[in-house]
Amino acid sequence: MKVAAVIPARGGSKGIPRKNIKAIQGKPLIAWSIDAARESKLLSEFFVSTDDEEIARVARECGAPVLMRPPELATDESKTVDLLQHLAGQKPEMDAFCVLQPTSPLRYPGLIDECITEYADGDYDTLATGFLCKFREFGTHGNERRQDYKGFFYDDGNVYVIDRALAAAGRWSGDRICKKEIPKEYNFEIDDEVDILLLETLLKRYA
Questions:
Q1: Using CA atoms, how far apart are residues 202 and 118, in angstroms rounded to an integer?
Q2: What pLDDT digit, counting tens, does each position of 129-170 carry?
Q3: In the chain, what are the domains?
Q4: Is this model's pTM higher than 0.85 or not?
Q5: Which of 16, 52, 69, 102 is the least buried, fewest Cβ under 10 Å from its Cβ?
Q6: Beta bridge partners of 67
Q7: How many CB atoms within 10 Å of residue 73?
Q8: What CA–CA distance (Å, rounded) separates 164 from 178?
Q9: What are the residues whose beta carbons fall under 8 Å from the beta carbon of 77, sequence distance 6 or more?
Q10: Helix, strand, coil % over all residues of the chain, rounded to 5
């Protein structure tokens, strides 16, 4: 099976300006995902997709091939699924795409290959890492114990594997989904400056 990893890194970050190349533990944030992709033994290829020349330069310096994306896929309204649909047309030889969001930089060794293997062996069309979420809006429960909630699976942004045909159809998920729960410390996703402070602590211990 041929799988291409995509590291999407648009230049127009609003919450944290220049987030994808911000130094985290001595290297650009995007480098953590690049290093994880480079260590994979099952990826056919990987690349950074960006509209930003500075991000492209940093990515190349970190050893990643770069595919510059067209302007229409670099707006505030652009979604990753739109990018995958575009890539599906450019790379018809691929069976699936693996999405590695740079904002989820903490991955344990072998996680990417573990996800690809589970995806292939289980005859899935979509895989997402995540965790069992037991949040409920206040006022919708009567002070029940959280351990009594059934909960639901929440994707953490760490690793996705998506069938190329689904991507070509503009779909983010299919009907045969593998919901891969991973340890809590790897569910971390960066949205703001506080997250960066927490992330640096986690990286010191788990990276």
A1: 26
A2: 999 998 888 888 878 887 777 889 999 999 999 999 999 999
A3: 3-130+156-206 (3.90.550.10)
A4: yes
A5: 16
A6: 49
A7: 18
A8: 16
A9: none
A10: 35, 25, 40
